[in-house]
Design goal:
Elements (H helix, E strand, L loop, with lengths): L1 E5 L5 E5 L8 H23 L5 H8 L3 H29 L1 H21 L3 H29 L5 H30 L12 H7 L2 H11 L6 H6 L3 H12 L1 H16 L20 H15 L2 H14 L4 H29 L1 H24 L2 E2 L5 E2 L3 H18 L1 H11 L6 H29 L1 H23 L15
């Protein structure tokens, strides 16, 4: 940084003074971890449905379309939650919306378990969707606005670790609850079926999230947006030290001063051309492609998938646990490398890897035999399919899983970050809903091989998208994001 200093004879000279960022690493890490509990709940709430499909079908007497909607209904709430949370966060604050999100998680977890009709269940799942959608966009945004640029990618990737840890925990919980009861549809404790307890387990982390949020600070960039500069400076001092805080505050103020108004959707347009900013199109592309590669089919319907190719319910739930463990391992690799090699190389590695592994899965399904009930019998290709599926999960969580959220949290300029996340998050969850809703229908009509060919095609297209449209953001301050 440059400081203006007066020499003794009154002449002005510019003296190069490197302001030292004395960041409070432990404090920054802890508040990032608190924010990512929302990611854990995002993952748990998304993954818990995996082991309850049979219970829902039996309890609500639903067909394949009805079951698909019961599973996918949460995603409607996610799309709305992501869209509303992004804009509300610019009005009420990141922390306030995260607190509301925690309360919605609690309501949804309890209500999903006590539901006695498909309609009631869908309502509670949509409420949970509001929470998941809000957490999905606000946690990475909050972390990006708190963390120093030099390890912002690493800290934001904790969000994906938390999401996968939530999924993994849901898979483990589902497996053991079903194992204790015998099957997920059997009565477990207090005369309630095991699948209901699968939802109620989520109450514990949701309550922890609500309590922990009370102790984290508001985002300094939100405080500057609201012209609460003294509060912003106090937070920056706690984060980065007193010497660096004032300079950082000035940078943040400058990034907002050029607009001189509260964020509106018009800010998403390019002032020169009148069209939508390029960065918004890139955000929409990232959000859509992340879902069209089919990852949530594995997470939401993993048990059904493996049962369809000959595994028992118990074995299928155990395979889900294996996939969760692989996912967590991949995320830790990303945490180590994302601030070293950058975002774009990881996306490319993931896109190429997913294309190859999905193509291998398609080949496995195409060569399988079909029994009298119409189920696939993989035979010797079963091992190939299992390894390919977990390799696919690995490549996704090495790349598009965490990196998309990192990019969305950091690539938008300060003025439009909330709104950019709103439209990108809405698009991501809408695509998620479409893919999830269509899978049971595709499974019954065109089969696994054709369905996975669709996902493989979009994995291939994602390679082209990354090469042509994605810009590197490694090491850049948020105030350097121009968003043209």
């Amino acid at each position: 940084m440059l400081n203006n200093n007066q020499t003794a004879n009154g002449a002005e000279n510019l003296v190069d003074v490197e302001l030292t960022m004395k960041e409070n690493k432990l404090f920054i890490f802890l508040i990032c971890v608190v924010a990512t509990i929302g990611g854990f709940l995002f993952g748990f709430d998304s993954g818990v449905i995996n082991g309850t499909v049979d219970g829902l079908r039996l309890a609500f007497n639903s067909d394949s379309v009805g079951t698909g909607f019961n599973v996918a209904s949460m995603l409607l709430g996610c799309a709305i939650g992501a869209f509303v949370a992004g804009s509300l966060a610019d009005k009420l604050g990141r922390k306030t919306i995260l607190i509301i999100t925690a309360i919605l998680f609690i309501v949804s977890a309890y209500g999903s378990g006590v539901s006695i009709s498909s309609f009631e269940f869908v309502i509670y799942r949509i409420i949970g969707g509001f929470a998941v959608g809000a957490a999905s966009v606000l946690a990475p945004a909050y972390i990006s606005e708190i963390a120093p640029a030099k390890y912002r990618g690493t800290l934001t990737t904790i969000q994906q670790v938390a999401i996968i840890s939530g999924l993994f925990s849901a898979f483990v919980s589902n497996y053991y609850l079903a194992d204790i009861a015998g099957v997920s549809t059997a009565v477990l404790w207090l005369n309630f079926e095991a699948w209901r307890w699968m939802f109620w387990i989520e109450l514990l982390p949701a309550l922890i999230f609500l309590f922990a949020l009370l102790f984290i600070p508001e985002s300094p960039r939100f405080l500057v947006l609201k012209q609460r500069d003294d509060q912003a400076l106090a937070v920056l001092k706690r984060l980065y030290g007193a010497e660096y805080a004032q300079s950082k505050l000035s940078e943040i103020q400058a990034s907002f001063n050029e607009h001189n108004h509260q964020p509106t959707f018009k800010d998403l347009l390019n002032k020169k051309t009148g069209g939508v900013r390029k960065v918004v199109w890139v955000g929409l592309g990232l959000a859509t492609l992340q879902q069209l590669v089919g990852i949530n089919v594995v997470f939401y319907y993993g048990a059904i998938l493996w049962q369809a190719v000959g595994f028992s319910e118990s074995d299928a739930l155990l395979i889900n646990i294996l996939s969760g463990g692989v996912s967590i391992a991949a995320c830790f690799i990303t945490m180590y490398y994302i601030d070293k090699i950058g975002r774009k190389p990881l996306l490319l590695i993931g896109s190429i890897g997913m294309t190859i592994t999905l193509a291998t899965l398609v080949t496995s399904f195409m060569t399988a035999d079909i029994d009298a009930s119409g189920n696939l019998i993989l035979g010797s290709m079963g091992v190939v399919a299992l390894v390919s599926a977990n390799a696919y999960v690995f490549f996704f969580n090495l790349s598009w899983g965490p990196v998309m959220w990192v990019l969305l949290g950091e690539m938008f300029p300060n003025q439009v970050r909330g709104l950019g996340l709103a439209v990108s998050g809405f698009t991501q969850w809408t695509a998620n809903f479409a893919v999830t809703m269509m899978f049971p229908i595709m499974l019954g009509s065109i089969g696994l091989a054709a369905a996975y060919s669709f996902y493989a095609l979009f994995a291939g297209l994602s390679v082209i998208f990354v090469l042509k449209f994605v810009n590197e953001t490694k090491g850049k301050e948020l105030e350097q994001m121009d968003g043209l």
